[in-house]
Amino acid sequence: ELLELLAPDGVGIAALAGKRAAESRLTLDFVVPENPTGRYSMNLAAPAERLVAEHLLLLNAWEVNLMKSRRMPDVSVTGNYQCLRNETLDAYPFSYQPDWILPTFGTLRFDLAVPKRPPKSTKAISEAAWQDLTVALQRSELPAALRVLCLRRAS
After folding, report:
1. Residue 89: what are its φ and ψ, rounded to 5°?
2. 54 close to 61: Cβ distance less than 8 angstroms
């Protein structure tokens, strides 16, 4: 159920890649630490997806401490500096707090909004390279969700 944005019907990454869930070891490969903003849905009973949840919560804690140390404004929804929004566990809303203990089962969903921007020195992709990329994506036989994941990895 990882990355609900890319698989809104609740299909897991393993299924998108044509693999059984038990064979999925690539789940963390689809989380982009440099650009983690997105909507996530994780089955906490699945070890790979639980690992992703742990990773994302750790990344959230890092970003919270970074924002506080830089004296950045609190742009969280609940006034707690957290980058998580719309948190639910088994469809029940809750407000994430740093002392919250990750359960061993259930479906955890949230939006992660990390206030990262590319460095000022970053240059935009050329028009020709963009055209080549869009043509390659259009011609690809991969499922649409995996094409989007590949694009996120390159962003």
Report:
1. -125, 115
2. no
Q: Per the confidence metrics, is the pTM higher than 0.85?
A: no
What is the model's pLDDT at position 2? 36
Q: Which two tokens stand for residue 2?
A: 């990882």
DSSP string, 54-89: HHHHHHHHHHHHHHHHTT-----SSSS---EEEEEE
Q: Express each pLDDT in 42-93 by its tens digit.
A: 999 999 889 999 999 999 999 999 999 999 999 888 888 999 999 999 999 9
- Cα–Cα dist 27/123, whole Å: 29
Rounded Cα gap, residues 16 and 35, in angstroms? 21
Rounded to whole angstroms, how far apart are CA atoms 113 and 11? 22
- What are φ and ψ of residue 147, in 5° steps? -65, -40
| Cβ neighbours of 33 (radius 10 Å) | 12
Under DSSP, the state recorded for 111 is E
CA atoms of 74 and 79, how far apart (whole Å): 6
